[in-house]
């Protein structure tokens, strides 16, 4: 079994790739039709692009935008930027202009590495562009390892990931090489990797699951199979890809797995996966049970992990038992914290709660990141010292309880932050955008449950009189109103933050503190469904 974590001599992610290029030189590293790179060839591609990065004047410590389609170029470009000592900042050209402009300005970006998909956005086009394409996936001749003594060490920032912000703007989280190496050191031994693993490279580089997807694979010498855009959006195509490449492991958001499980059962596709690891959302037990019914022979190990951007992707690990899958408990089991990323459950006064009692999760240890870009007050509020506990701790805002055996069970959010299809979303950011629409007087975003039992966004709005009737008279009028709203919101919010339903109300309910009562709104929507 290949479970060895990165050794102490590996100080950066670039070192991890260099080490694997020597240890697994001829093993396939990346498959993206028609490209197939070994680890030695991948390393040479990264060296070549890192040389181009330095040639355009980018220096160690710079933040550099990265706007490429998800897939092979995301791995090569991010690895090259880190090898040049830079921090990559994901930029999705499909996101609204205002959001892109904020990220560019807040991160102080001057240069962007982009492919054809990233050229059109004005905010990206205005930067100095280093164009990448399929030629950057063609390895040149081996020229020896080009080392650069000026490249920063483990404390340097590897990437800046922008998450949804409750103030109406996204906030950038700086994550160091040491943070990611700490995650790999603690997490890799838990999964029991075999010598030749294969898993899909499917998550966008603006979603930090991609960090685990890419660098866990590199660390253990696994083969990454790039998932084409068509397969990302079509579970039948994804199932076919998993079968064709004989994928052994799957890291996936539960709502996406639900659709895949439906296809696998309906089409009687046999996918002999060894492991399925869920992340980003509450578990969907029905999807697991559906998969189990449809797949003969040994079942994969079902695992669940928990973590957030501010504490470097994953912080806990749980292998589900057959009884837990069958019983389908309401609270999602997330297991135990990693050795060097302790988790505590505290009350509002930051005191430990008894087993079985709900409190807020705080994460400490080596995976706690430096903080937010240019937001010192928020950094001081969320990253703090705890009396009697060493180091810095991060207040996650997530609620959980610990059972008598010490296992953590996720309950929900302390505030209005939610996860939809794996994306962490602040409902306050959507509120902010809704209230900026001229014909809306007041509004609140609410999470409702679809007929499939999946979370979805709805907008509860109080319209101005000039916008027409407060209550849509029929489905056709509702659809027209929703279409109008989504078009206006698309200027400031990405697709995954657009509501799928709009409900007009005379007023929004308030709780005893005078704040919008989202729980009452959600209950009202449930009655209307």
From TrEMBL:
It comes from the Bacteria. SUPFAM superfamilies: Acetyl-CoA synthetase-like (SSF56801). Residues 17-372 form the AMP-dependent synthetase/ligase domain. CDD domains: A_NRPS. Residues 429-515 form the AMP-binding enzyme C-terminal domain. This is Amino acid adenylation domain-containing protein. It comes from Streptomyces longisporus.
């Amino acid at each position: 079994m290949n479970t060895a974590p990165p050794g102490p001599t590996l100080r950066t992610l670039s070192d991890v790739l260099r080490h694997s290029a020597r240890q697994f030189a001829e093993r396939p590293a990346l498959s993206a039709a028609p490209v197939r790179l070994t680890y030695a060839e991948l390393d040479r591609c990264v060296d070549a692009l890192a040389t181009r990065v330095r040639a355009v004047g980018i220096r160690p410590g710079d933040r550099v935008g990265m706007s490429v389609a998800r897939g092979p170029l995301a791995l090569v470009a991010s690895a090259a930027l880190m090898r040049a000592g830079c921090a990559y900042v994901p930029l999705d050209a499909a996101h609204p202009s205002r959001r892109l402009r904020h990220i560019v300005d807040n991160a102080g970006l001057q240069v962007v590495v982009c492919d054809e998909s990233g050229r059109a956005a004005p905010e990206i086009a205005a930067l100095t562009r280093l164009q990448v394409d399929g030629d950057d996936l063609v390895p040149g001749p081996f020229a020896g390892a080009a080392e650069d003594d000026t490249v920063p060490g483990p404390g340097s920032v590897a990437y800046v990931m922008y998450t949804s912000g409750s103030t109406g703007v996204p906030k950038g989280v700086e994550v160091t090489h040491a943070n990611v190496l700490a995650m790999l050191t603690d997490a890799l031994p838990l999964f029991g990797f075999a010598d030749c693993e294969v898993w899909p490279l499917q998550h966008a580089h603006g979603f930090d699951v991609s960090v685990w997807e890419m660098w866990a694979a590199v660390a253990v010498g696994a083969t990454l199979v790039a998932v084409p855009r068509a397969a990302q959006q079509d579970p039948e195509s994804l199932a076919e890809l998993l079968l064709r490449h004989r994928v052994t492991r799957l890291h996936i958001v539960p709502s996406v797995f639900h659709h895949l499980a439906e296809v696998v059962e309906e089409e009687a596709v046999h996918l002999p996966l060894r492991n399925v690891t869920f992340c980003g959302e509450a578990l969907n037990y029905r999807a697991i049970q559906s998969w189990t019914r449809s797949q003969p022979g040994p079942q994969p190990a079902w695992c669940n992990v928990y973590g957030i951007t501010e504490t470097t992707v994953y912080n806990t690990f749980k292998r589900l038992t057959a009884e837990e899958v069958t019983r389908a408990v309401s609270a999602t089991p997330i297991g135990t914290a990693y050795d060097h990323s302790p988790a505590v459950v505290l009350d509002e006064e930051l005191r430990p709660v008894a087993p079985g009692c709900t409190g807020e999760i705080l994460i400490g240890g080596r995976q706690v990141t430096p903080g937010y870009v240019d937001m010192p007050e928020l950094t001081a509020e969320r990253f703090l010292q705890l009396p009697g506990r060493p180091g810095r701790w991060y207040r996650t805002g997530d609620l959980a309880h610990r059972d008598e055996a010490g296992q953590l069970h996720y309950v929900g959010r302390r505030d209005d932050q939610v996860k939809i299809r794996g994306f962490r979303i602040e409902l306050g950011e959507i509120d902010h955008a809704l209230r900026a629409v001229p014909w809306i007087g007041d509004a609140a975003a609410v999470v409702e449950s679809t007929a499939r039992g999946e979370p979805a966004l709805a907008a509860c709005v109080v319209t101005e009189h000039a916008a027409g009737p407060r209550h849509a008279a029929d489905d056709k009028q509702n659809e027209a109103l929703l279409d109008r709203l989504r078009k206006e919101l698309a200027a400031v919010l990405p697709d995954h933050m657009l509501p799928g339903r709009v409900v007009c109300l005379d007023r929004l309910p308030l709780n005893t503190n005078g704040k919008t009562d989202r729980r009452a709104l959600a209950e009202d929507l449930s009655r209307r469904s």
